[in-house]
Amino acid sequence: MEKLIFLGVLFGVFVTPRLVHAQENQELEVEQSSEVFLEEYSDTFQENFFEGLKQMGIRNYDRAITYFLECKRLQPQNTVVSFELAKFHLYDKQFIRAQEYALEALNGEPENYWYAETLVDVIDAKKSVIEEVKGELPWSNVELRGNLAEIYYLNEDYLTAKTMLKGIKTSKKQEYLESKINDSIAQQKRKLVPVAKKEDVVPSEDLNSVEGYKSKIETLLTTGSDNDNLLETTEEAMERFPSQPYFYYANGTALNKAQKYKDAIDILETALDYIIDDTALEHAVYKELANAYTATNNTSKANMYLSKIK
Known about the structure:
Number of strands: 0
Largest sheet: none
CATH class of the largest domain: Mainly Alpha
Helix content: over 70%
CATH topology of the largest domain: Serine Threonine Protein Phosphatase 5, Tetratricopeptide repeat
CATH superfamily of the largest domain: Tetratricopeptide repeat domain
Shape: elongated
Structural class: mainly alpha
CATH architecture of the largest domain: Alpha Horseshoe
């Protein structure tokens, strides 16, 4: 079985861009030794498997799926076949089936990086979140969590990447990855906070403290009549007091009102990084995140944040 898994993953290189780059020097060797790898399988299985690969190579995905479904009938527990079917259904935008096969493959071989990557691709295509399938995965598997963290890191979803490593005993490799994730989050935060012009740095007398800014911002939030002023004030507050989560929340709220939803999501998720033991503010941030994700038609994430409000 391990030989077939290895072969199947390598034959999938032309539909997995990262794997193409990583394995391009091994393709000839795999083709030359494919017969040896498949000696233990029936002729019928081999014929359907290679015909499926052939149809995949010429982008005839409907016929490829047919052949791999026959392989699935012959070898129900074969993770390579589940992996290929997950990819095909993803291309065909049949996301529910794609997720079922991707989970099946990953449960059969939790430490397989490419199986994890395909599952993440399916989840992203569904505009869903990894938390929704967490209960269907061997979540205690450290290698699986490390792979997911690396995949989300490469996708520049640094906050999700960080959560993948939370609560596990990391290896040196994973500790290095975590340090890169933290560096990327820090850089992202610096980019999000606007650099004020010199003439704007000096605030008025009533805005010389955290409480002074909070008072003005609360008034602007309550009246809701001057969103431009709210944006300007919260940006100034974040510049002067970059570790205050309330200012990020208020800025995210203003960005939502300005219909700048992607920027709002970035700022609001940054707010969550700074919140410590403030349930009311945390719930307020969740509500604004739900509003932003709803506006961007990402109902899965919107519902996820709404479910956190108790």
